[in-house]
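Reviewers of the previous submission asked for a worked example of the structure-prediction workflow described in the proposal, so we include one complete record here. The input consisted solely of the amino acid sequence. No template or homolog information was supplied to the procedure at any stage.
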Amino acid sequence: MAGKQPGADDEPRLPDDIWERFQQDSLGRIDETAPKEHSARWYEVTERLAAEDARRRTAPRPPRRMRRPRPRMPQAPVPRAFAVGFVVVSVVLVLSAAAAYLQYGRVF
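From that input alone, the workflow returned the following structure tokens.
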């Protein structure tokens, strides 16, 4: 009796197959049935967004005549062909001026 621990024989022993089934059932279903709780950060962000939304809804809006109109885009943007033509003409003009300077020593 000196080597026995107190309470070792007091507990009934479960058969191994029942204990294994208990472990599999418990571990397998814990993730499925456990409630998922949000983090504290989620609660803080939700409260802050709700407060901002409430503040935005109750904030007075200026009258329509005092609001500044949005800047408008040009009605007809410059066609790409005009832009490409401008670049080509500019390059030709610069090259012809450089050729005239190299050949005659002056541009005009």
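DSSP finds three helices and no strands in the chain. We consider this example representative of the routine output the project will generate in years two and three.
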